[in-house]
Design a protein that fits this description.
It is built from 8 helices and 8 strands. With 215 residues, it is an alpha/beta fold. Strands 1-2-3-4-5-6-7-8 form an 8-stranded parallel beta barrel, surrounded by 4 helices. The structure holds 2-phosphoglycolic acid. 2-phosphoglycolic acid binds next to strand 8.
């Protein structure tokens, strides 16, 4: 199984999100998807998009973040209990969360536990082999900060070396993220070692994203 994850970050209006799904679905109607394709929109769009994609059935929904707390007096937080039943996946530990919101390995482990407790599968991001990976992580995305949003995608050979260094258990899915495009996607998949991608900028356009998904 391969994973293609669209990380929209803090982009798009609700109207644009609907249009994205309409356009993407128009492509997949002709050529049904065989892989797991997950869209991670801003949280306020999760419910409207869930309603929309349940009609199309081939898209999954994920959140870009989850609270480290189970609930209570934490103004502004969205917890696992809130997200349960809405999302199947949660991106945890993205470089931007680590860099701009000071999320360290300890905080991220709490987030991981909250996701798992809610029955949400974490897509756990690391930027290097020194980032600690929670023991039960099943989907790991390696995203070197030098490659995120820069157009400087990491050499596929280097990505495979990183995977070896991580010495992951056999049932782990290892994804790559960082300036993935429809032009470079195949060079990663060809290695036979990379189980899919976490995609930022190129996922904002449904056709570009579709091209990656079918690469
Ligand atoms: P990018 O972002 O594809 O725009 O480099 C990747 C990510 O931030 O997950």
């Amino acid at each position: 199984m391969r994973f293609f994850i669209a990380n929209w970050k803090a982009n798009k209006t609700l109207a644009e999100a609907h249009l994205w799904v309409d356009e993407f679905t128009s492509y997949t109607k002709k050529n049904p998807l065989t892989d797991t394709v997950i869209i991670c929109p801003p949280d306020p769009f999760l419910i409207p998009l869930l309603d929309k994609v349940s009609e199309t059935s081939h898209l999954e929904i994920g959140t870009q973040n989850i609270s480290q707390y189970p609930g209570g007096s934490y103004t502004g937080e969205t917890t696992g209990k809130h997200l349960k039943g809405i999302v199947k996946y949660a991106i945890i530990g993205h470089h931007e969360r680590r860099a701009y919101f000071n999320e360290n390995d300890d905080v991220l482990l709490e987030k991981f536990i909250q996701a798992k407790t809610a029955g949400i599968e974490p897509i756990y991001c690391i930027g290097s082999t020194t980032d600690k990976i929670p023991d039960q992580a099943k989907i790991i995305a390696y995203e070197p900060s030098s490659a995120i949003g820069t157009g400087q995608n990491e050499d596929p050979k280097r990505v495979v070396e990183i995977k070896k260094e991580l010495n992951l258990s056999k049932n782990t899915f290892f994804l790559y993220g960082g300036s993935v495009t429809s032009q470079n996607a195949t060079s990663y998949l060809k290695t036979g070692e990379i189980d899919g991608f976490l995609i930022g900028s190129e996922s904002l356009d449904p056709l570009n994203f579709y091209r990656i998904v079918t690469s």
